[in-house]
Amino acid sequence: MKHNEEIHDEIGENHIGSCATNPLRKDAFDITDDEKIESIKKDVESILITLGMDLTDDSLKGTPNRVAKMFVKEIFGGLNPARKPKASTFDNNYKYGEMLVEKNIIVYSTCEHHLLPIIGRAHVAYISNGRVIGLSKMNRIVEYYSKRPQVQERLTMQIVQELQNALGTEDVACVIDAKHLCVNSRGISDIESSTVTSEFGGKFKETQARREFLDYIKLDTKF
To answer: Has 180 been annotated as catalytic?
Structure first.
């Protein structure tokens, strides 16, 4: 019989996500960013000391503070709803009715199972039903949901759901192709493999639209 720790390790190794939203506690934002930084700083100090590192060394003195600030303000900054980009939309005055594709959006995220980087590209598309969104906003939405402990499946779904809500249409698609350093740099240590995830809504569930989208992004993958 497996112990809970073994079960949890197995879940993490297989990249199983527990839910479609990031699992946050209700009190996640009861303390300020500065208070979080101070608390995390102490935790990082403890980890480094436990590992045997000499924190009096000039190279390591500032590491706990640097890591804490990075966690709160950078790589996990997307957890804070106050940083959510405003997804302004506009009337489709051009009456453009074909799909719009924004491809090769850089993804920098962090695997929630090992806290190691996920690095890749997102390809996003939508078909307007009367509203359009600024191109840079699509990049910002990808960035916002990437900046948190993630699993790639959830990230893909969140990007599509956010654009569907902003544009008022189900006709949104996203494909992400990314490398997971928890696979590439540890465990099996397969430096060549990458992970592809997709979410297709509305018309993109139809074969023709899906194939057109995949042809635009030149991804030789069957779904």
So the answer is: yes
